[in-house]
Design goal:
Elements: E1 2-4, H1 10-23, E2 30-31, E3 38-40, H2 52-65, E4 70-72, E5 79-85, E6 90-93, E7 102-110, E8 119-121, E9 124-126, E10 133-137, E11 143-145, E12 152-163
Length: 166
């Protein structure tokens, strides 16, 4: 688990948040299937036009972390938006390995300030602030979140399947 403070600036948090608010009730978001109070674009079969800023941030992540020998995770453009509502939690779980010899890594960016909903990795709690990115191998560690006390938590998720042999 790695936290990079202030990975994106406020203007990009606001751009991605605005995109979410403008489309939240458009049918692009579906239940996250995490037994909480969360919706996501992860499972939508509809065409999604993400903002240009989302792609620029993905390029920044790849360069900053020096990610090589990877495939994008199998959701639209390897990214998705997530909205959690007051009372949301996420049970500890591991994500699948989507490709042979590749672990799944998520780079999550928190887009707003909120109380509760802290990230849990191997039962340790981490407080994440607006603009921060947390990175971890989601196929290798148990992860989830504790109860969200605020009305909303907005997160943009980038998924990479990294070849463990190179």
């Amino acid at each position: 688990m790695k936290i990079i403070k202030n990975f994106i600036e406020k203007k990009n948090c606001d751009k991605l948040s605005e995109w979410i608010f403008d489309r939240q009730k458009s049918g692009l978001f579906q239940d996250a299937n995490m037994k909480g109070k969360r919706i996501t674009t992860r499972y939508t079969a509809k065409d999604i036009v993400f903002p240009q800023a989302a792609f620029e941030i993905r390029n920044k992540i790849i360069a900053h972390l020096g990610i090589k020998n990877f495939k994008l995770a199998p959701f639209r453009y390897g990214m998705y938006a997530s909205v959690a509502f007051k009372g949301d939690t996420c049970y500890l779980h591991k994500d699948p390995r989507y490709y042979r010899n590749h672990y799944t890594m998520h780079c999550n960016i928190k887009l707003n300030d909120s109380d509760g909903g802290d990230v849990l990795v191997n039962e340790q709690s981490y407080k994440i602030n607006k603009g921060d990115m947390w990175v971890y191998k989601t196929s290798e560690v148990n992860h989830g979140s504790n109860e969200l006390l605020s009305d909303l938590r907005l997160v943009w998720v980038y998924g990479f399947c990294v070849n463990e042999n190179k």
